[in-house]
Design goal:
This protein is of the alpha/beta class and 723 residues long. The protein folds into 6 domains: 76 residues, 3-Layer(aba) Sandwich (GIY-YIG endonuclease); 66 residues; 199 residues, P-loop containing nucleotide triphosphate hydrolases (Rossmann fold, 3-Layer(aba) Sandwich), CATH 3.40.50; 167 residues, Rossmann fold; 61 residues, no CATH class; 95 residues, Alpha-Beta Plaits (2-Layer Sandwich). 34% of the residues lie in helices and 22% in strands. It is built from 21 helices and 28 strands. The strands form 7 sheets. It has a 7-stranded parallel beta sheet with strand order 9-10-8-11-12-7-13, sandwiched between helices. It has a 6-stranded parallel beta sheet with strand order 14-24-23-15-22-21, with helices on both faces. The chain has a 4-stranded antiparallel beta sheet with strand order 26-27-25-28. Strand 9, helix 10 and strand 10 form a beta-alpha-beta unit. The chain is globular.
Length: 723
């Protein structure tokens, strides 16, 4: 049966079922009479390398996650099927796509019919192998002609593996290699020195928008590839992957693989297989691509390293950026974190810790100026017109001037739908989700009320369900409403919208952005999806509607997220030859996150925000762990939360102290009910991460020994969202 080596998949008995697992160690490491024999070894060679297994073990420890779940996220769908039989065919465990193909032709073959001779002549003029299905389609013959040739020995036909390619959806760009600016060259020289030397080093590349970070990445990867090293590039959004992939495909051709969740399972498996075989040495992908089995990995780039989408919401709740750093350490690779608005923890480390070196790109390429930013006090606008305005006079005027000059406009509102809620002006009733403590959003195109958390939807009532009066009022504008208003204001303009509602179909994201790139769209309206990474030279005006919306959230990161979003979206303006302008509309124009975003002054924002974090003991001055108790029954949720808190406090007393570690709660989560479950929160703040893990491990072990339902306790290390 072979040897069950670490990293191989095996079929094992689990109760009455047979499940697929991954070998982490040998049976010699364990003792006792409960060990069971492996039913079947599924891989002749390990599919997880020793270094990836080391990353599995680190993730399981750091994020307090089951090792099996950590191994699962490292593999493409289908390799760890939940249940299988020992008698299954090998294809069940290795989901390749196979088809019959002609591998060779014997041109001295005799006794052929006229049709068979035509087939042989056609094959002699083609590069082999040739798929039988394609040959039959091209010649119009039946498959029996091919089978007869094979029986006569004139051709050799065997099944071959087909690679399902995602590149049909990606238009490859012809590479344009620009000479590096003096500033880019300085950054490149410092990082390439580390790449050439080999070994683990980390850099924070802090570059203003349009400073040419991608050009530096491409040159660094070229250097790594020339040395026979592999490279891994992480991007935060699926929508950015095709755009980045086009550039990388143009530079590196067939050596590039892409990995993201929008690919089919077959495409993801085949891309993973190409990487594992060493046929692809440059990998571009979203969060889980950090686990791609790149051979001789020498360089890891995490673009937009501040982005929250690098954090996995479900088990295992890992951060792709932090996992990239750990993988770089394990692989002896160089790690580059890039952003125009670095996460404060990264910035603080780069300024205070020699292990993360700070590199700055302070200027836009070609000496282009940062956009001029105007802030509009919407309170004044309200007083002037006696009602709330969606588009201010200043923004309306500047949109008009851009349309006259045939330039493009981007409008950001980070709220989709038509209206954020329905309100009865008679009794005050609002329509809420039956599963979550959330008001339902009205979507006009679907004419439905929808929950953006669980997907529940219902028809729009004609009258109030509470008082039966027909005083239904739509409150709060979403992107759908803004699109309607803008089309009415500028009827001759080509207007489009980019949000989760408009990109449901495969390829729609690319289609919308392609229209903007071809200047077929005059005004693009969208959520935060339009704020990141896009390069549209003809966009000279960016308008931000309801800029202070994020500041209302009960989260200590709200100011940082607002600053990042405003700075990033402002960076979409003036990336071409024409200078850019930004209009930011706010009811709180004096908030420091808005003020410093207007000035594009990251350092001043960081200084003030870090002072706030230090005063209230938030990261980077402390480490956080968020424990969420989730139960269908409210009383049970609170009872379990109190048990967890008491156990945490007892172990905190033994392993730490109140001065170094605080246990806050239990308290109702900001969204108290979600998907029918009641949610109670316990937050831990500590200045000693080692003690944090010790307290959590002891707490979980004690709760497990008392047969507490651990599935109802969700532990999130370094949480990005406390909602």
């Amino acid at each position: 049966m072979g040897e069950a080596r670490p990293g191989c998949r095996v079929l094992v008995p689990f109760g009455r079922r047979h499940l697929i697992g991954v070998v982490l160690g040998s049976g010699a490491d364990y003792s006792g009479d409960k060990l069971k024999n492996v039913l079947r070894i599924l891989d002749p060679e390990p599919i997880l390398t020793p270094k990836l297994l080391e990353l599995v073990r680190w993730m399981a420890w750091y994020y307090l996650a089951p090792p099996g779940e950590c191994a699962r996220v490292m593999l493409p769908p289908g390799l760890l099927a939940k249940q299988a039989s020992p008698d299954e065919s090998p294809e069940k465990f290795w989901p390749t796509k196979r088809q019959l193909a002609v591998l060779s032709v014997d041109a001295a073959a005799s006794g052929l019919t006229a049709k068979q001779s035509i087939v042989v002549q056609a094959l002699e003029s083609q590069n082999l192998p040739v798929l039988v299905s394609q040959l039959v389609a091209d010649l119009g013959f039946s498959q029996s002609v091919i089978q007869s040739l094979a029986r006569k020995g004139a051709i050799r036909v065997e099944p071959i593996d087909l690679f399902r390619s995602p590149w049909s959806q990606v238009q490859v760009e012809t590479p344009v290699k620009h000479p590096l600016t003096a500033e880019q060259q300085e950054v490149f020289d410092r990082v390439v020195e580390a790449v050439n030397r080999g070994g683990f080093e980390t850099f924070l590349m802090h570059g203003v928008t349009a400073s040419g970070k991608t050009e530096v990445y491409l040159n660094l990867i070229s250097q790594a590839v020339e040395q026979g090293k592999g490279a891994l590039v992480l991007v935060p959004e699926i929508g950015l992957t095709p755009q980045i992939a086009r550039q990388f495909r143009g530079w590196f051709g067939e050596r590039v693989a892409i990995l993201h969740s929008a690919l089919s399972d077959g495409e993801r498996f085949d891309q993973w297989r190409r990487i594992r075989q060493g046929r692809a040495t440059v990998v571009v992908g979203t969060r889980s691509a950090v686990f791609a089995p790149v051979r001789n990995l020498g360089l890891i780039v995490v673009d937009e390293e501040h982005d929250g989408s690098y954090k996995q919401a479900d088990q295992p709740r890992y951060n792709g950026r932090d996992s990239a750093i750990k993988r770089g350490q394990i692989e002896d690779a160089v790690v580059v974190l890039g952003s125009a608005t670095p996460q404060l923890e990264s910035y603080y480390r780069a300024k205070s810790d020699a292990q993360l070196e700070y590199l700055a790109l302070n200027s836009r390429i070609l000496d282009r100026q940062l956009p001029t930013v105007h802030i509009v006090d919407m309170r004044v606008e309200f007083e002037k017109h006696g009602k709330a305005a969606v588009i201010s006079e200043l923004l309306h005027e500047k949109i008009s001037s851009r349309l006259e000059r045939k330039e493009q406009v981007v409008l950001l509102l980070n709220r989709r739908g038509y209206a954020s809620m329905l309100l009865c002006r008679s009794c005050g009733h609002t329509e809420t989700c039956q599963n979550c403590s959330i008001t339902l959003t009205f979507h006009q195109e679907a004419n439905r009320l929808s929950c953006h958390y669980c997907g529940y939807s219902k028809s729009v009532p004609r009258s109030c369900p509470e008082c039966s009066k027909a005083y239904i009022y739509y409150v709060g504008e979403g992107t759908e409403k803004v699109e309607e208003l803008v089309r009415g204001m500028f009827p001759s303009a080509a207007v489009d919208r980019l949000d989760r509602d408009t990109v449901q179909r495969k390829g729609s994201y690319e289609k919308i952005l392609g229209a903007v790139a071809r200047k077929q769209t005059d005004i693009l309206i969208g959520t935060q999806m339009i704020a990141k990474g896009h390069d549209f030279p003809s966009v000279t005006l960016v308008g931000v509607l309801s800029a202070d919306q994020g500041l209302r959230l009960a989260d200590f990161r709200s100011a940082e997220r607002t600053f990042q979003l405003l700075t990033q979206v402002a960076g979409r303006a003036g990336r071409g030859e024409q200078p850019g302008e930004v209009v930011i509309q706010s009811y709180f124009p004096n908030h420091y996150s808005l003020k410093y975003a207007c000035a594009q002054d990251y350092q001043q924002f960081a200084n003030q925000e870090l002072e706030f974090r230090k005063r209230f003991r938030y990261p980077p001055y402390t480490a956080l762990a968020n424990l969420l108790v989730v139960k269908r029954d409210s009383r049970q949720a609170w009872e379990l939360a109190h048990t967890v808190a008491q156990t945490l406090n007892r172990w905190r007393g033994e392993l730490s102290s109140p001065s170094r570690m605080k246990v806050l709660g239990p308290a109702a989560a900001a969204i108290e009910r979600l998907k029918k479950d009641h949610r109670v929160q316990i937050l831990i703040k500590t200045t000693n991460r080692k003690e944090l893990h010790a307290v959590l491990e002891k707490t979980i072990a004690e709760l497990a020994s008392e047969r507490v339902d651990l599935k109802s306790i969700r532990v999130d290390i370094d949480p990005l969202n406390l909602m």
